[in-house]
């Protein structure tokens, strides 16, 4: 077994595992949801506020309660603290990949 030699090699598998675990948990928590769009700019607030929008495989929004939206947004932000949160990001629940922007997930998940 090869031993990782740098900090990034040590951190990368753990981050990847965390991302996949989060995606799996969100898939169970939000049935029928293919992706989650997360940002800190809730249009109803004047200050930074965590917000998540669930998107199904057809690209339609799935309603979330305010509490669920905030919890999901906080979990995603804490999993990727290095991301630039001035703009929204989309988490694909099938792959666990976070992408900058408000893109819709690929169909046929």
The strand count comes to: 5
Query: Averaging pLDDT over every residue, what do you get?
Result: 82
The strands making up the biggest β-sheet line up spatially as: 3-2-1-4-5
Q: Rough shape?
A: globular
Kindly name the structural category. alpha+beta
Distance between the termini: 34 Å
Low-confidence stretches: 4-11
Count of discrete alpha- or pi-helical segments spanning 4 or more residues: 2
Structure description:
- The protein has 109 residues and is of the alpha+beta class.
- The chain contains 2 helices and 5 strands, in the order αβββαββ.
- It has helices spanning 7-29, 66-79, and strands at 33-39, 51-56, 61-62, 89-92, 97-100.
- Strands 3-2-1-4-5 form a 5-stranded antiparallel sheet.
- A hairpin with a 4-residue loop joins strand 2 (51-56) and strand 3.
Question: What's the short version?
Answer:
With 109 residues, the chain is an alpha+beta fold.
Indicate the topology:
Elements: H1 7-29, E1 33-39, E2 51-56, E3 61-62, H2 66-79, E4 89-92, E5 97-100
Antiparallel strand pairs: 1-2, 1-4, 2-3, 4-5
Helix pairs in contact: 1-2
Features:
2 helices; 34% helix; 109 residues; alpha+beta; five-stranded antiparallel β-sheet
